[in-house]
Design a protein that fits this description.
The protein is of the alpha/beta class and 270 residues long. The protein contains 9 helices and 11 strands.
């Protein structure tokens, strides 16, 4: 018996949102692109006109009327307004600005109460399946070291508030050491990977993080080390930045891979 088609809406048409919209427009089994929401639709007219089936453009608070799944590819300040109408009606919100969930933890309870779901895709980090599995036992520690090109960190609130100037550095500089929760506040556009890691494992207050501004790297480099009662493992990934230097290209592909799993006869991974 064929799976009913589920309707998808996308909020934001930056590098990630456009890639996801294009994939949906080209066709993903069991899904259809139903709507988008953007601040200024006129800026995206040419892009939308190239789609085979241009979706309707709706304000954020109306997306739930046209979609079963809403994908947030927008500034973190919009996460709450995107998620509430969706999960309160028992639908699914895919959240990429994961750090915002730490300041809006009541959204998880809201989803639970109404049969909704908040999905955090793997994004720019490998090994979340392994961390999730290890968390079914006991994890002693999770440590992450991130190295980023200078333009990927420019303007981060933590740097501004602490008067840290990285513009002229010629050697790697450690600019932060602390918890994933504090990193999410200080680097809201950069460290969604750390928050996703913390939610998969031991939480944002026990997941520790170093951030390095590194003029020698051209990719976003993340190394994770985990100690648990079931395994000791480490993993490193070097993500090629998208048109937005704060975001890796693989982030959009991770969302698309998740969407393809929904209608797949074979599903690999937790």
């Amino acid at each position: 018996m064929p799976t009913p088609t589920r309707r998808v809406a996308v909020v934001g048409l930056g590098p990630i949102g456009r890639k996801v919209v294009e994939a949906l427009d080209q066709g993903i089994d069991g899904l259809t692109l139903a709507a988008i929401s953007v601040q200024d639709p006129s800026k995206h007219g040419d892009f939308l006109a190239r789609l085979k089936r241009p979706p309707v453009v709706l304000p954020i608070d109306e997306l739930h009327t046209s979609a079963d799944i809403v994908i947030e590819c927008a500034p973190s300040k919009l996460v709450r307004s995107i998620v509430i109408p969706v999960v309160s009606r028992g639908k699914t919100a895919i959240v990429l600005s994961v750090g915002a969930l730490l300041e809006n933890e009541d959204l998880i309870a809201l989803a639970r109460q109404n049969g909704g779901q908040i999905v955090v895709p793997t994004g720019a980090l490998i090994g979340l399946d392994a961390v999730t599995a290890a968390a079914e036992g006991s994890i002693q520690s999770v440590r992450m070291v991130t190295r980023k090109p200078l333009n990927g960190l420019a303007g981060a609130p933590y740097l501004v508030e602490n008067n840290i100037d990285i513009a002229g550095i010629t050697e790697p500089l450690k600019i932060f050491e602390g918890t994933a929760r504090d990193a999410a506040k200080g680097f809201p556009a950069n460290l969604n990977v750390a928050v996703a890691l913390s939610l998969a494992g031991v939480g944002p207050d026990r997941t520790t993080l170093q951030i390095w501004a590194d003029p020698r790297v051209t990719r976003n480099v993340h190394r994770v080390e985990v100690e648990s009662d079931s395994a000791r493992f480490s993993m490193t990934i070097e993500n090629i930045p998208s048109e937005n230097p704060k975001t890796g290209r693989i982030t959009a592909l991770s969302v698309i891979a998740y969407l393809r799993k929904q209608g797949s006869a074979l599903r690999v991974g937790t």
